[in-house]
Amino acid sequence: MSEETEMSLLKTPLYDYYKRKDIKLIDFGGWALPVQFTKLAEEHKAVREQAGMFDVSHMGEIIVCGEGSAEWLNRLVTNDVKVMKVNQAQYNTMTNEAGGTLDDLLLFKFSADHFLVTPNAVNTEKIYQWMVMNKEKSIKIENVSNNYGLIALQGPNAERILKSMTQRDLSSLKSYFFLPSEKFGDIEEVIVSRTGYTGEDGFELYVKWNQTQKLWDKILKAGVCHGLKECGLGARDTLRLEAGMALYGQELTEEISPLEGGVGFAVKVDKEKPFIGQESLKKQKIEGLKRISRGFELVEKGIARHNYPVLNQESEVIGTVTSGTQSPTLGKSIGMMIIDKKYAEFGNKIWIQVRKKQIEARITKKDWLKNIKNRKEGI
């Protein structure tokens, strides 16, 4: 990447740190971010076995507050906001009238009238404008993305590391719950959420933009004896794929509904006051999906990349690869695809067009990580 290109990109609060450390950066959705700090396989293994830390400050943050905020948000998102408790996070999607996915995101409930919405970086402005367009008078919406840095600390040792930095008993913080204002030394008002995008236990820390570097350094120091490694985008992608987690722009798009994209657990189509897109998604459920998301494993050597065609035995195109990688944990090539439902039975043979070669694969569930952990525990 040229210096001119790099200078035109958006920069996280750790940009100067990357430059001092001579970390190679790439253009990721308009942001200058590292693919890796050392080696992808080492960073991936650290998260699976010890701990890894990611700079995800490019993600968006939008505050929603005002009387009736919960009810209003419930008419914009597919999951049921009404069941959320105070200090709980919820995975969600926003859809258009046709049921296509505008974004997948997290909601954080501070009170009935105060929420934090965290869209994907590339969708922050789109989601903000969508919310403003559908705003009610009592609702206040503010894009505060420039106020927050975001650090993800993930892996089996994540709790031990963070515990050494605070008096708070983090063991009582359940998955998908958060602490609204924590202090780490002289770093105050940190939102600590037990969430992540790796399939491992861990935390995401929303910190004031100008305090992000200081918190990063503190965590690094605390993690020395716990095998902590700095991690880049490469490991983040292999980790989430092994965990079967969807990525916006691949498994989910404005042309792929959350039902088709494999996150139907976050879609409640019987809300009394319907969300935007509810009728379209309800119709998809009633009539049955024509295409669905599935996992696959290659039988032969090769890696199936995004947008590679999926074929049946007659070499007819029956689907498209949405994500693919060589799994560092499994030592084999895995991926996710969207495929015509009539061909989607688990165990079926398919073929992936990898450049000029058709490579055989098997349809699987997206439960690779769960199976790995079950084997380790002797289940």
From TrEMBL:
Keyword set includes Methyltransferase: yes
InterPro entries in the cross-refs: GcvT, GcvT/YgfZ/DmdA, GcvT/YgfZ_C, GcvT_bac, GcvT_C, GCVT_N, TrmE/GcvT-like
Gene Ontology molecular functions: aminomethyltransferase activity; methyltransferase activity; transaminase activity
Binding site for substrate: 204
Gene Ontology biological-process annotations: glycine decarboxylation via glycine cleavage system; methylation
Record's keyword annotation contains Transferase: yes
Domain (GCVT N-terminal): residue spans on this chain: 14-271
Pfam (any one): GCV_T
Record field: catalytic activity: N(6)-[(R)-S(8)-aminomethyldihydrolipoyl]-L-lysyl-[protein] + (6S)-5,6,7,8-tetrahydrofolate = N(6)-[(R)-dihydrolipoyl]-L-lysyl-[protein] + (6R)-5,10-methylene-5,6,7,8-tetrahydrofolate + NH4(+)
Known EC number: 2.1.2.10
One cellular component (GO) term of this entry: glycine cleavage complex
Coiled-coil annotated spans: none
EC class: transferase
Keywords: Aminotransferase, Methyltransferase, Transferase
Domain (Aminomethyltransferase C-terminal): residue spans on this chain: 294-366
Assembly with partners or alone: The glycine cleavage system is composed of four proteins: P, T, L and H.
PANTHER family referenced in this protein's UniProt entry, alphabetically: AMINOMETHYLTRANSFERASE, AMINOMETHYLTRANSFERASE, MITOCHONDRIAL
Family of the protein in this entry: Belongs to the GcvT family.
Record NCBIfam families: gcvT, PRK00389.1
Role description: The glycine cleavage system catalyzes the degradation of glycine.
Name of protein: Aminomethyltransferase
Organism: Marinilactibacillus piezotolerans
